[in-house]
Amino acid sequence: MPSNVELDPTEWLDKHGDILFRYAISRVRDAIAAEDLVQETFLAGIKSRDSFSGRSSERTWLIGILKHKIIDYIRKDSRQTLTNDIDNREHDAEQYFDRKGSWKVGQSEWLTNPQKAFERTEFWEVLDSCVGKLKETQRDVFIKRELEAMDAAAICEELNISSSNLWVLLFRARTQLKACLEVHWMGKVEAKPS
User: Fold this and answer.
1) What are phi and psi of 181, to 5 degrees?
2) Residue 83 lies in a domain
3) CATH number of the domain where residue 65 is located
């Protein structure tokens, strides 16, 4: 470690704990898992502090460690839930599609202007709530692909899933989000200006 770079792990919790926790919970959506990941990050930081070069800030370095911890957590969890997802594929297809592959239920009417809805805070709150109801692997895939605009190959590598599984998970996430938004947002009528 260069002599001009000093790390003080005793200050990490106060200086970086909240930021790391918010970052972790935005990715894993589980407060207990997020706390564990932050603790693991601090422990890994203590063990590897001699490798800190000072080329980035202390916080950036810790967030980098946390990102790797989150990736490991998601990979482990995705392997566990993959078996459950495979069992549900047939049921999902029969629920939404007929034998020819057409939607069984028609598209619902949006009572709001989608462009205006996109700009409203309430829409984002409803969307966040609907995304939070997805299964963890579906949520991770949806967030990475649609909100973070990650490349499909990068998502597959990060989550250790196949390309076909990625598209199945995205399809399911989008279908469930559509249903959730229809119930919690699309039926709401915009207030007319007086």
Assistant:
1) -65, -35
2) no
3) 1.10.1740.10
> Phi-psi region for residue 29, left (φ > 0), alpha (ψ -120 to 50) or beta?
left
Number of domains the chain contains? 2
Q: Please indicate, yes or no, if residue 66 is contained in any of the structural domains.
A: yes
Cα–Cα distance list, 27 to 79, 93, 99, 139 (Å) = 17, 28, 37, 9
- Positive or negative: CA dihedral 134, 139, 145, 147: positive
CA distances from 84 to 56, 68, 81, 119 (A): 41, 25, 5, 36
Q: Which of 27, 58, 76 is the last residue before a domain boundary?
A: 76
Render each residue's pLDDT in the chain as its tens digit; 194 residues: 443 466 888 899 899 989 899 888 888 888 898 999 999 999 999 998 888 888 888 998 999 999 989 888 887 776 665 555 545 555 566 666 666 666 666 555 555 555 555 556 677 778 888 888 888 888 888 888 887 788 889 889 888 888 888 888 989 888 888 888 888 776 653 444 43
Instruction: Please tell me the distance from the alpha carbon of residue 111 to that of residue 191, in angstroms, as a whole number.
Output: 11
Residues 71 and 116 in one domain: no
Angle, to 10 degrees, between the axis of helix 31-47 and the axis of helix 12-28?
Answer: 130
